[in-house]
Amino acid sequence: MSNIENDDQEDKPLDPVMENVRRKMMRLQLVSGGIMLLMFMAVLAAIVYKINARDGKPEAVASSGSALAVPSDAPVKATATLPDGFAVSAVSNSGGQILFYGVMADGARKAFLFDIAAGRIVAEVAIAGN
C-alpha cells in the first residue's frame, strides 16, 4: 500500500510536446503578470500625481458674470426698485442676477435685470412684437 502512495507523489517527466506547452504557458503567465503589475503602478502614479497637483487649492468654478461673495455671518441683503406701474409676470435668476419680466402700466412689455452684487438694475429691455 505504501508503494502506491510513492507512485502518486513522484513527478513523472512529461513528453516533449507537453513540456513545450507548459513552458509557453509559464512564459505567457509571466508576461501578463508583468503587464498587470506595470499598469497597476501607472494607476498608482496617476493617483499620487493628482493628489499632489492640487496642493490643497480648491478648483475654480466657471461662472458667467460677476461672482457673488456670500458672507458667512449674514445673508446678502438687496432691494430691487422697479418702476411704478410695473406688473411682474415672471422671475428668473442666474449667477447672481435676477430677471424681472412684466408689463408696464401703459401696456409695454419690459424686462429688468437686477445684479445682486452691484445692488442695482443693470439692464432695462423693452420687448416689442409678438
Automatic annotation (TrEMBL):
| Keywords assigned | Membrane, Transmembrane, Transmembrane helix
Asked if the Swiss-Prot or TrEMBL record annotates the protein with the keyword Transmembrane, the reply is: yes
Q: Looking at the record's lineage, which domain of life comes first?
A: Bacteria
Q: Where do the TM regions start and end?
A: 28-49
Q: Output this protein's name.
A: Transmembrane protein
Report the source organism.
Answer: Shinella yambaruensis
